[in-house]
Structure formats: structure tokens, C-alpha cells
Amino acid sequence: MRIKKVTTPFRWLLLFLPIALITFFLARPAPPPPEDPSLTRSTTPAKTPRNLADLALPPDWSELERFQRTISRETFLHRLQAIYTKDDSWKKWIIIDEEKKTASLGDFTLFFSDSDQNPPGAIFDWQTRSELSPHRSLPLAGLHIALDPGHIGGDFAALEDREYVWEDVIIREGTLTLRTAEVLAPMLRERGAKVTFVRSELSPVTEKRVSDFANPRLFYRTSEIRARAERINQSLRPDLVICLHFNGTASQIPESSQNFHILLNGTYTAGELAHEDERFQMLQRLLAGTIEEEIPLAREIADAFNKHSSLPPYLYSEESRTSQNIGDHPNLWARNLLANRLYQCPVIFMEPYIMNSHPFIARFREKPEKIFLEYARAVAEGLTRYYSRS
Ligand SMILES: [Zn+2]
């Protein structure tokens, strides 16, 4: 049987249809890029990829069960809006039901209480000032303070981008922070505190090394801080952590002046809230009430520091999406850093001085120990003043 000859118009259609289809698909706009590269780095083989921060594990939302009926709707909203966020992007993830008195947090529903109850810690129970014995003989007796000397220092300082070399002077932030911790620790022990070090050598806490990552920052920042968080949350379990840092800028020419500020966890951006783990950790902090201890303590430390050093406060721009001034104090700012987010107890993150400034370099060249002493005395005095109040 002869195959019927294809008619001419139909032949044209056969010829042009594939071309038209290819042109249509090529002309389509490309799908939007993922909000964060970590989308493609999720560690779980979940069917729908979970949006997580770098090297993060997916959270177990049932761990928030411990906070059921411990917080009022008013306190929840106040902390959320005054400390942890600066815009309305949280509304995409947190739905408040006024009638049912609940907050829907994705798969998890939180029930509000009529009034605030004493909440547990998110991972471990840390003591507030009011929980210390009123009969203690020393102001810090019964208190466990973990000192976290920022960065790694020593031979790692250049890799970390925390090293300044000015003629005869080499300034390595991670070395300076450890020296400060070593000066501060005996001062706190004299006042009755138990003091532990999150890092006590010029070497990393993480077992990973820079060769384990394509991006060095994932080693010295992300993996290192996650290892410190593990040590704090799972083994040290202190009542508070003091993160010791020295501020510095990227300028190759020495700055003319210095400043001072303290960072408390807060001001999550829309992109950070989109990360499931970051949103979860924000809620852990919010519900455990760390901020209630952090603000009055940070105020005392800032006042003591200002008395000892008289550095002007650092000012972030009003338009900054990542920071906001809090606690009615010029030196106190809320920013979401990996350390002050992951360490699940009150965290005071110190940022004094400018290491690459003329006044700092001059003092460092003359007698570095005087700087460590000034820094340590201010922190010890602030802690003592806070914990001496009843
Ligand atoms: Zn630092």
C-alpha cells in the first residue's frame, strides 16, 4: 500500500513547529537564582530542598515544645519586633492567631500563655542573675562564665584576614583576644566565678582544616564557630558567654580614631529568616528570653568600658538592614552573627578599639599589656556591677 503523500501545508507545519517550539523555550525568562548558595548545599536528602545557612543541619522543631505556654503574645511580638527584626518579613513565616492564642511557625504551633512564665533554656538551663543564691559571699559566686577569644590568631591570623603589619608592629586579633581572656579570667575567678575558655590556644577548635573547603571562610569562620557552639551548648553549658574581639577596618592606611560597641543577637534580615535553621535559632533565643539578661548586663559592661577607655560609640547607619540600636544605650546594637546566634545562653559580643588606627598602634607599640588590662578591668567591673545588684 502506498503511503499517502503529505500535503504541502502540512509539510510546512512539520517544518516550522519544532523551530517555533525551540524559539519559545529559549525566549522564556530563566528561573530566578536560589536566594542563597546554601540551597544547593543542603545536607539532607529531603524531597523538597530545605533552605539552610552554610554547613547547617535542619532543625528539629519539636525541640520548641518546652516553650509551650511560657510566653504571652505581647512579649513574643515585642521581642520579635523590637530586637529580632527590623521589617515585616517575619510575617511570611510566623502567623499569629489572636483568637486561638497561637503562633504558627510552619509545621510547629506555639501556644501563648496569658502571662509570662519562667522559661527553660533552649538547649540547656543557664542561670539568670535572680536565680543565683542571694547569700553568696562574692558577687560572681555560683556563676559559670565562658570566655570566647574571637578568631584563631597566631599562624592562622593572616588566613583569617585578622592580621595587620605596620613596620615593626604585627597585630593579630586572635592572639590579642586570647591574651585579654588570660588577663580577664583571674579577675573573674577572684570575684567567685567559674571561668572556662572556649579556645585556649592559638589553634582552631574545629577539626576541619582549610583544605576541607573550597572557600577558606567556611573553615576559619563557619566551621570554627559551629565547633565552638557545639562545645558551649553540649559540654561547657555556661550561664553566659563573653565573646572578646577587637574591631578593625579593611583600610590599608591607619584610621585616625577608634570607637566601641557591643553586639547582641538580633535584626534578622528577610534572607536570614528564609533560612529554616536561622529562623529556628532566632525563636530559641526569643523564647528562652536571653535578651532580658543580655541588655541590662551589656549596659553595665558598656558603662564600665566607657569609664575606663572613653572611646566614642560606633554608629551604624539608620538605613542598615542588618543592625539597629537597642536597649536605650548608644553602645548597644543588635546584629545576627553566627556566634551570638548559635551559643544558646546570654552572649555579650565585645567590639572595642580599632586595631588599625594610629592611637591603637601607638599604644600597642608602647605596651600592649596596658590595653589588655584596660579591656579586662572594664569587663570584670561591668559583670561585677550587674551581678551585685539584687
Ligand atoms: Zn573580631
Characterization of the model:
With 390 residues, the chain is α/β, with parallel strands linked by helices. It has a domain at 129-388: Aminopeptidase. 37% of the residues lie in helices and 13% in strands. It is built from ten helices and twelve strands. The chain has helices spanning 8-27, 73-84, 173-190, 216-236, 270-274, 276-288, 290-309, 338-342, 358-366, 368-388, and strands at residues 95-97, 102-105, 108-111, 144-149, 163-166, 169-172, 194-197, 240-244, 260-264, 324-325, 332-334, 347-352. The protein has a seven-stranded mixed sheet with strand order 7-4-8-12-9-11-10, sandwiched between helices. It has a three-stranded antiparallel sheet with strand order 1-2-3, with no helix packed on it. Strand 1 and strand 2 (102-105) form a beta hairpin. Helix 3 packs across helix 10 (368-388) and helix 9 (358-366) packs across helix 10 (368-388). The longest helix is centred in the middle third of the chain and has 21 residues, at 216-236. Residues 150-151, 173, 245 line the site of zinc ion.
